[in-house]
Amino acid sequence: MDTQTQASPRVVVVGAGWAGLGAAYHLAKQGYAVTLLEAGSYPGGLVAGWQTEQGRSVEAGIHGFWYPYRNIFSLVDELGIQPFTPYTRSSQYSPHGLEVESPLFQMEPYLPSPLGTFVYTDFKRLPLSDRLSALPLLYSVVDFDNSDDAWRRYDRLSARELFRQFGVSERLYKEAFEPMLLVGLFAPGEQCSAAATLGMLYYFILAHQPDFDVRWCRGTVGEQIFRPWTQAIEQAGGQILANHRVTDVIEGEGDRLTGVVCGDEVFEADAVIFSVGITGLKKIVASSPALRRREEFRNVQNLGAIDVLATRLWFDRKIDIPLPSNACFGFHQTTGWTFFDLNALHDEYREEPGSVVEVDYYHANQLLYLDDEEVLPLVQANLAGCLPDFGEAQIVDHSVIRIPQGVTHFAPGSYQYLLPGQTSFQNVFMSGDWVVTRHGSWSQEKAYVTGLEAANRAIALCGLGQTADIIPIVPDEPHIQAARQVNRWGRSLLSQMGLPL
């Protein structure tokens, strides 16, 4: 039985990723008796880094930190750490060679959204006529305002249907939008929700000119960010327990949970925050009668996740890689991949005699169960298809990490099954990059923000402490605000007249 003090409200947080760490940190600072349970060996979940037997740092894929990640940047400032590189430029390759180079948008003269993205992105082969075919799509960007109504309307469509309906040319779709989906939503367009596509596209690219600028961790996220963060949680009185997989919950009276079960251990709770991914929550629900009795939790079984293959290669020589971050398309029909020059991004590899390259594949179901001996020549051939010098180099060491069902899949029709932050249990709250929020952020920033939102709900329930200050996204530019207002008036008028929308 958990023996934490009864003097403070007891909160059990399940899952030690961005969301769980965010909730636990804030609640511990407010005097709560926080127990953070992590099924894996390291806090951080799928983004935790570790070292191989040879002492080389690896992690389950590289994660960027985009310009609008205002809450995460505020967190690292509070922790007093400097984990990030400067903002970097990026490029995109196909089997035909270099396709796109992106500048540092914040360094270019500012243009109203989305003109900056359109004008300053350097397409090497895509004709202007194809790029202009995206103009009608701007109506959907205005119409999709992240409201519940907009999500329900657009979630019925796939991204492929969305782009086809708005007249996007086949070439623009194949060479720009689908590659973005494969590395942004991790699946081909016919398998992605149009609502999620518009939310991701607007947040990362279209809302404001600098939004696509990205920087990277100067080492593994686990070492650079999560280690000092977990130390701060423990210093604030929080308890972090790795290798604790939740198997059940204990239901009390009045739509409340009174405890969380990990095998033979029971952790009593005044509030519970779930901060696990879809795959993790599906496993917990499957083993818990109390959760299975609730339709909202049963419906999580309708959601899915996507396979990831993360490789890290050490070469016998330095290879000239023009830009440190690169996305690739056209090498595999339904799989997107990225590669990163870790000599340029990670401090520990700056003096390596040979190139160290991270290559990550998304929607990698057809690659996941290949042996390392089959994966390595495939990866090297793909790299050589972008930069031929990779074909002459020798791999002297490698890491291959397989992550089945590792990242969230926003499939068409999935919105109706996503859980809100407040569940039908009075004292159970949800957080994570797949949880419904009106904040408007995405990916790691969204996970962290929903963790803070869950902490604030626990504070409202228990009545102890100050709520976390959550930095909102930068407001829409005035012309976008005006266009959305006119659109809402138009939709309301058509609805009153009984005309189809």
From TrEMBL:
It comes from the Bacteria. Pfam families: Amino_oxidase (PF01593). Residues 19-458 form the Amine oxidase domain. GO terms for molecular function: oxidoreductase activity. Signal peptide: none annotated. Gene3D superfamilies: FAD/NAD(P)-binding domain. InterPro entries: Amino_oxidase, FAD/NAD-bd_sf, Zeta_carotene_desat/Oxidored. PANTHER family: OS04G0560500 PROTEIN (PTHR42923:SF24), PROTOPORPHYRINOGEN OXIDASE (PTHR42923). This is FAD-dependent oxidoreductase. It comes from Leptolyngbya iicbica LK.
